[in-house]
Design a protein that fits this description.
This protein is mainly beta. It is built from no helices and 9 strands.
């Protein structure tokens, strides 16, 4: 089984912590409409996050973040997550 390409660059941070900075194949989170996924090639996007688990898929173990709230923006395959703000 081949590994998924890592075409996203993800930076996930809180005011005083850096949770992740690196390559990923997908990011899963939720906003007030419901759960969503960010995949390579995603349209420019900005949304407020609701409480829940954010999952960042890497070639190693998935990175999970328990977030109370946050903001995510996507542009040119770069995903910026600001959580617990």
């Amino acid at each position: 089984m081949s590994e998924a390409p890592l075409d996203l660059h993800v930076i996930a941070r809180a005011p005083f912590a850096l949770y992740y900075d690196g390559a990923a194949s997908a990011v899963s989170a939720a906003n007030r409409i419901g759960p969503f996924d960010i995949l390579p090639g995603h349209a420019d996007f900005l949304t407020m996050l609701t409480a829940g688990t954010i999952t960042i898929e890497t070639n190693n173990e998935p990175v999970t973040i328990d977030a109370k709230n946050g903001l995510v923006t996507v542009r040119d395959n770069e995903v910026l997550l600001f959580v617990n703000i």
